[in-house]
Design brief:
The protein has a single domain, classed as Porin. 8% of the residues lie in helices and 65% in strands. The protein is built from one helix and ten strands. Strands 1-4-5-6-7-8-9-10 form an eight-stranded antiparallel beta barrel. A hairpin with a 2-residue loop joins strand 2 and strand 3 (44-50). It is elongated, with a radius of gyration of 19 Å.
């Protein structure tokens, strides 16, 4: 929760300073499964997936122009990661995983004055990943470079409050700062891997124009 409190403090400060051109975006989406693996040799590997589930988030978007927006975005997913790994034989654990994304996103709007306003955009930032082993209570965390793309549409019949439909593709690059840690020694295998997490999500949310 400390990530959420930090993000909310930044968002509220920014909203007070620039409320005339700010949109408050709330997000909810379903994230699909993604496989992850690391193989060093037959005695040092893990193989499994990060399960799909509900992802929620909040963002503040500053409209540089009617057709261009810049957003500070926080997304979170709490899920499971069932893994097979080697520890004096093949073992299996369902790890608890929290995926936190802090992203700066840019959006290009195609019909800014219309009630249905489609958009596309890109995202850059970091993924903060917390991993817990329920078998022994050990935990680990990692900070990864993250990127993403998005597309969707805002539906705002009143101009003040509207709905959002959105598809996103988010990636946490494991090669940036080392690999994830599953398996031996509790949570960690100690392996460095250059595979990535690639998460596809479909969902929507609420859009609130904070300006007059």
């Amino acid at each position: 929760m400390k990530h959420l409190f930090m993000i909310m403090a930044v968002l509220l400060t920014a909203a007070t300073a620039m409320s005339q051109k700010i949109k408050l975006n709330g997000y909810g989406a379903y994230v699909f499964d993604d496989g992850v693996d690391s193989y060093y040799d037959p005695n040092s590997y893990y193989d499994g997936k990060i399960q799909g589930g509900f992802q929620w988030g909040v963002g503040l978007e500053y409209m540089l122009q009617p057709s261009y927006g810049l957003e500070l975005l926080y997304l979170r997913q709490d899920t499971k990661a069932p893994m097979d790994y080697y520890l004096a034989g093949v073992k299996h654990t369902d790890f608890d995983v929290a995926m936190n994304y802090i992203m700066v996103t840019g959006s290009r709007y195609f019909k800014p004055n219309a009630k249905i306003n489609p958009y596309v955009g890109g995202m850059l930032g970091v993924a903060l990943i917390d991993i817990d082993n329920p078998d022994n209570g050990n935990s680990s965390n990692a900070t990864k470079f993250a990127w993403g793309i998005k597309g969707g549409a805002n539906f705002q019949p009143t101009g003040k409050i509207g709905l959002k439909l959105q598809a996103t593709l988010l990636s946490a690059v494991q090669g940036a700062g080392g690999g994830f840690y599953f398996g031996t020694g509790g949570v960690g295998t100690g392996l460095t891997t250059y595979s990535t997490v690639l998460q596809f999500a479909l969902g929507g949310g609420v859009v609130v124009n904070l300006g007059k």
